[in-house]
Amino acid sequence: MSLDWSLGEVEALSAKAARGAGRAYGVAQEAGYATAWLCARGYDGAGAMAALLRATEGVAHTDLGPEVAGPLCPLVLGCFLSDGGAWRDWARPIHVPLILAPFVIPAQSAIILQAGQAGLKLSAQGALIGADPGSDPVEVQISSCAPFDPQPLRSRAGVTPAARDALMALAERTYAPATAASRAKGAGDGGSAPHADVSPRTD
Hints:
Layout: E1 3-6, H1 7-20, H2 25-40, H3 45-56, H4 74-82, E2 110-115, E3 118-123, E4 128-130, E5 140-145, E6 156-159, H5 161-171, H6 180-184
Antiparallel strand pairs: 1-6, 2-3, 2-5, 3-4
Helix pairs in contact: 1-2, 1-3, 1-5, 2-3, 3-5
């Protein structure tokens, strides 16, 4: 059964987990954004992010970008595209291709992300429909498609216990080690969800 979290909570945890997995601060912020963005559209963003961080843990940032051989990271590629890089049909697979969606919103009309056997349709308004292509690395092709009606955005995120545990395990690496003094004051008591006072981007 999925846990009911706010989008802000899942964004904050995913960003912290990305930092724990060794991602730079800016990339980690994009990880949080992408997770909340997918959850708002009914996808398992937390599970997708946990799968990506596990698959790429310990791999240098420079070995995950578009300039090198091997599977691409959708976060690194997403940051590359956000910074003005041009999409091209890379002839190699991309880890957890669902995470690409928040970074390739078309300027107009709609596009389809063909990832293996799955096709995800993405509109200029940020609507997303289609089957989750899964976490295995696959090649992704992007082409135009007919416009479609958007689905209502969700204000809450469904987070599976497995995804929560995986993200929290990574996030805990960012915490300062407990001391006798901090334990005496009750630090580190934990909770079912991280506290967050940030509002997730939903554009």
